[in-house]
Amino acid sequence: MSNTEGLTLLGNQKTEYSDRYNPAVLEAFDNAHPESNTFVKFNCPEFTALCPMTGQPDFATIYISYIPDQKMVESKSLKLYLFSFRNEGSFHEDCVNKMLKDLVSLLQPRYMEIWGKFTPRGGISIDPYVNYGMPNSRWAEFAETRLLNHDLYPEKIDNR
After folding, report:
1. Residues forming the active site
2. Where along the chain do its domains lie?
3. Which terminus has fewer CB within 10 Å in the chain: N or C?
């Protein structure tokens, strides 16, 4: 049995792009190495959503990092999922929290963090960070430590 059984998007030449928030598009496959603590990081530099108050577009780079347990997210489905925010009216903090909830529900990872680096509007940028650690495990402790220390050494930002 292949660990990609049940995937419908990978290799599909007739992909439909939902322009409304659609967590149902997310797909997962079996982790071939569940005995390893593999840190997987996705960098999504072309994320867009709409301001729920003005309807103006917000742009961001979204960083999704996780340590899988039994399941891993299929990257094409993740791309389509992130695209589905394009016409969604959500505040920046709401976007990253929705992503975390949807991905944790799908994957049940050991650890996950999502950091949105939004471009400024009105002279201010907002960079929400949210994380999760598997309850009743060392990963819950890891998540708390990571949250409390995630921005101790912020990067120099000169391109936004």
Report:
1. 51, 58
2. 27-149
3. N
